[in-house]
Each structure stands twice: as C-alpha cells, then as structure tokens.
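Render this sequence as a predicted structure.
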Amino acid sequence: MQTPTVITEEDRATYERDGVVCIRNVYPQDRAAELLALWEEVAADLEKYGLEHTSKERRRVTPGAYAIKHLSRKIPAFKPFVMDSPVPATLGDLVGLDSVGFYWDQFFVKNPGTEGRTPWHNDAPGHPLKGEHIIGAWMPLTPVDRDNGLECIAASHKSKVRYWPATANGDHTPPPPDRARCPDFEERRGDPRVTFLGWEMEPGDVLFIHPRTLHFSCGNRTTDRRRVAYATWWHGDDIVWDPRPEAETGPPDVDFANVPIGERPSGDAFPIVWRKN
C-alpha cells in the first residue's frame, strides 16, 4: 500500500466547511504518469477492450468530451491503481473513517477547445446508495486550471435537497413533481451568496468531494491542452445499498435485484482496501 498523504486539521476543517478539499501530491507524479500512459494505450482502441463512451447511454452528447467507466473492473492492468492507491488511506484520515472500500472508477476526457459543459450537479442522487461517505476523489492526470478543471460550490453539501440525477436512467425518466433537476448555477455568477471554488492542479493532486457537493466543468477553454482526469468513488462506514430507478446502473458484476438493501456494499466487487489501525 502506498504511503498516504499527511492530513492536517486545516484540511479536515476545509472539507467539513466546504464539502471539498484539494490535497496536493496524493499520488506520486511518476505513478500518475504510469496511469496516464496506460490510459493512452487503452484509449487508442476502446473497442478492443470492450469499452464505450458513456454518451452512448445518455441523451446528452458533448463533442470533444467523453467519459469511460469501470476501467479497473474490465482491465486487470488498472486494478493496482485502485488496490495499491494512497487515496483510501488519505480519505480515511481526512474524514475520520474506520474503513474505506472501493466502489467506482471513471476517466473523464475533454479535448482542447471543447465547448460543452458538464452541467452543475452533485453525485448523491445518482448513487444507488445512501450515506455521507460515498466520497469522490477527482485526480487530474494532466495539469488543470479554471479553463479546463472542475469547480465546486462551497458548503453546498449542507443542503439536503435531492435533485433529480443526470444519470443515464435519470435522463430517460421524467422527474416526479417533488424532485427538480439541478439549477444552472452559471446564472448565479457574481451572486455574493454563492462561493465558486476552483483550483490549479498538477497530476497526482486530488479533490476529495462530498456526495452532495455541487460541481461543474466549463469544458476545455484551452486550445493546446487536453484534460484527462481519473475519478474514483469510495464507500465509508455509513454507506448502505439504496437502489432506485433513477440511480446509476450497477457495475457489470453487480445485480441490483440481489443486493441486500440497507447493508453496506461488500465482497470482491466492493472490497475494503483500508482499515484504521
């Protein structure tokens, strides 16, 4: 297991206050470069590896941007980047967990000049789970800034509003009257009541994001820099199964008809990869 980054009280306070914190140098840069090189090899021929863009299962298609999920489940070479990652130990220390398990991984790519935005949303409504500890770890594998990175709204995790999710299932199902879609917070730029957070990040830096924290990407306003990011999601102590029609479908090795509702994910598909000593 790779050595976790030292977490400070300021880091913990930032995560608790804002619902997101940027921790520097979580992944060694040479290891991040290895992950990017492996991705480049696979991305050159997605069909060879049985992979396809998530845009094919959704109504939204954004030219120049795409996402690929379940890399570590489908391609053995990616699995060490989950099982031997410093992320879960760093996360456990940040949030104060007894254990951290793996749930999901996904690559996000935006080519230079991509205009299509990733709309404002949060992840909690789209997970077939409930609890505070289904935490995302967003790590760029190429340098990012506000022209091509991720933005979050500070303290938005404190709201308990359950927006209708922008999942494949949610996109194809109209929301019920009591579930609105997430507003476009671009309309509130300049509103002093809304604090937009953005970061300059290097490969190996990680954003740890609470499941209710609202986040967004403007596209890629640069003309000469591709944006590649690797995101992983981890389940902590209070997470239990809560599959719903609008939520993401499960990983390919999981049948939601047989998951024990109200129990924590477990087994080979969702292994515990870190425990507090």
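Summary. The chain has a mean pLDDT of 93. The chain has one domain: 9-275.
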